[in-house]
Amino acid sequence: MSDTVKELHEKRMKLWDESIENHKKYIDESTGLFFEKYTKDRVCPVCSSKNEIIVFNKEGGTYVKCQNCTMIYLNPVFTDKAIVEYYQINHTNQSGVVESDTDNFYINIYNNGLDSIKEKKPNLNNILDVGCSSGTFLDLAFERGISTYGIELNQAEFEFVKRKGHTVFNELLNNVVFDTKFDAITMWDVFEHIIDGEFYLNHMSSLLSKDGVIFLQIPSSDALAAKILREHCNMYDGLEHVNLYGVETIKKLANKCNLEVLSIKTIISEIGVINNYLNYENPYLGNTKNKEFIPNLIDEEKLLETLQGYKIQVVLGKK
Ligand SMILES: [Zn+2]
User: Fold this and answer.
1) Position 29 pLDDT exceeds 50
2) Which of 19, 49, 112, 315 is 20 to 30 A from residue 255's alpha carbon, by CA?
3) Helices (H), ranges, 90-240
4) Residue 101's pLDDT band (boundaries 50, 70, 90)?
5) Nearest CA to 195 among 307, 83, 36?
């Protein structure tokens, strides 16, 4: 493993530790769960069923599985008031990780995503990136001659993106009145944070131009790594990742919002992480010396082909 990859891993782990540290003041030590005053109960965010089983507890939160549609979600979740306060106090700065991207890990992912969008919407005049962070994706879109719009709630990142020349808003998506419709609306690692995904999908759909598309990148509860590692998998943080869609559940939600799936794929095998875990190591320490065993059992290409990669990328269009 190169030093830069190791550094990236270490930066991600530091962010993770900070984020988990932030949970502590919300947790009732006698139960290990969040104090009830911060939370509310809910039904399945995809099919509205109340029929759920507990999968595991993680850092104060409880993940459940819907017995009707298989959706994995946090229940209870933070109330609207508590979650706004939480993000105001505890914004972890993901942009630092993206900016130290010397191996072009994120750049390649963004470029591939842009290619998937263009495949379904070739004449792409403008793009709105919701939760644009430091604007790296918007920079790439701009380089390709696309007009760029962003939404970013974090004040410092908002200012940063604005200075780069993108049109950016420091408000919730549903509070902004746009003077244009969009050929593409993207959400990179944001949709899993949204409690009412149905509302947001419907709203984004209403902002699309004719033949416009929605692109989502989300962690997948169908990922082999997630299923093997379960509560040890870092997609389950217990608080911020409230909805963990899988391949079928994201399709089901899209369908409910009158959207059709134009393309769907998964990226990032996480074979190294699985390998570490099955060799009794810290799964997120980077590739350890136990290299051979698991990779030989798992065909990486097949894993991605069968949609068991760590993240789903889906392009949706209006029916
Ligand atoms: Zn359900």
Assistant:
1) yes
2) 112
3) 95-99, 105-120, 136-143, 155-163, 197-206, 224-229
4) low
5) 83
> Whole-prediction pTM value?
0.92
- Environment class of residue 110 by beta-carbon count within 10 Å: exposed (0-12), middle (13-18) or buried (19+)? buried
Binned at pLDDT 50, 70 and 90, residue 14 comes out as confident
Cα 293 to averaged position of ligand 1 atoms, centre (Å): 37
To which residue do tokens 């470029």 refer? 111
**Average pLDDT of the segment spanning 89-103:** 63
Tokens of 150: 């962003």
- CA 50 to centroid of ligand 1, rounded, Å: 8
pLDDT at 128 over 60: yes
Are the beta carbons of 290 and 275 closer than 8 angstroms? yes
Strand 259-267 with 311-318, pairing: antiparallel
* Alpha-carbon torsion angle 177, 312, 133, 143, nearest 10: -80
- SS3 for 20? helix
Q: How far, in Å, from the CA of 210 to the mean position of ligand 1? A: 31
Determine contact, residues 289/243, Cβ cutoff 8 Å: no
Distance from the CA of 3 to the center of ligand 1, in angstroms?
43
Please, are residues 246 and 220 in contact by the beta-carbon 8 Å criterion? yes
